[in-house]
Automatic annotation (TrEMBL):
Signal peptide: none annotated. This is Peroxidase. The keyword Mitochondrion does not apply. The keyword Iron applies. It is an enzyme of class 1 (oxidoreductase). It comes from Pichia kudriavzevii (Yeast). Its EC number is 1.11.1.-. Residues 57-246 form the Plant heme peroxidase family profile domain. One of its GO terms (molecular function) is metal ion binding. Destroys radicals which are normally produced within the cells and which are toxic to biological systems. One of its GO terms (biological process) is cellular response to oxidative stress. Belongs to the peroxidase family. Cytochrome c peroxidase subfamily. Gene3D superfamilies: 1.10.520.10, Peroxidase, domain 2 (1.10.420.10).
């Protein structure tokens, strides 16, 4: 659920006015078939059934609410979520493929995506990626990567940041896939290149260390940053309803 909602928002582009949760573009094949969305069909099918059962709720709202529930149910912070998004009647507002963040990005590309396109800063970027990577894991059949970032897959805490700092990470290869990822010494945990870049870049590492030592502060920052993510591309009237210019 968290990955699905994240991908509904992270392709936002302010220059073209496309992407983000505005209009529910994940409902169109042009967006859903992006290679970055591989493995999300089960989640989408489940959410589509909910929308069909309650058609007065837009797809755009249905697609963005589940992660709020997921975070809270797993012990995480309460994410502010606002209803009122409208659905785009056609694919003209659907973003082009290839905008979703890539696990192989270095720190410069992370900044290009998160700072310059999505409008986040270092504090927010580390909170967002760390918050999402701190739950669940990677599945080779979907992304090519395999393994988990923490030992508590479905428990919310700041263990991701502690593992990133405390474990010794070495570059390895996913068996039978050939994709490179990082492993700790006993190969019980994994990290992607974007995670290791947090250690290499002082601007990012500062926040990794802060979040590793202060879970309450991390929760606050994640809640604020994710609420901001959910509103990317959403322009609301004074009544709180989004109006899309078709």
């Amino acid at each position: 659920m968290i990955r699905f909602t994240w991908h509904c928002c992270a392709h936002y582009d302010p220059a073209s006015g496309t992407g983000g949760s505005s209009g529910g573009p994940m409902g169109f094949a042009q967006e859903f078939n992006d290679i970055g969305n591989t493995g999300l069909i089960t989640t989408k099918s489940y959410l589509d059934k909910i929308q069909h059962q309650f058609p007065w709720i837009t797809f755009a709202d249905v697609y963005t609410f589940p992660e709020c529930v997921a975070f809270e149910e797993l012990g995480g912070p309460k994410i502010e979520w606002k209803p009122g998004r409208t659905d785009c009647p056609g694919p003209n507002k659907v973003p082009v493929m290839g905008r979703l963040p890539v696990a192989s990005n270095d720190s410069d590309l992370i900044k290009e995506v998160f700072y310059h396109r999505l409008g986040f800063n270092a504090r927010e970027t580390v909170a967002l990626i760390g918050g999402c990577h701190g739950l669940g894991g990677c599945h080779a059949r979907y992304s090519g990567f395999n393994g988990t970032w923490t030992r508590k897959l479905f428990t919310w805490d700041n263990g991701y940041f502690k593992a990133l700092l405390e474990e010794n990470w070495c570059l390895g290869v996913v068996p039978e896939i050939g994709i490179e990822q990082y492993y700790n010494e006993d190969k019980s945990l994994t990290m992607l290149n974007t995670d290791i870049e947090f250690l290499k870049c002082p601007e990012f590492k500062r926040w990794v260390e802060i979040y590793a030592n202060n879970e309450a502060f991390f929760n606050e920052q994640l809640a604020t940053a994710f609420a901001k993510l959910l509103e990317l591309g959403v322009i609301r009237d004074k009544d709180g309803v989004q109006r899309i210019k078709i």
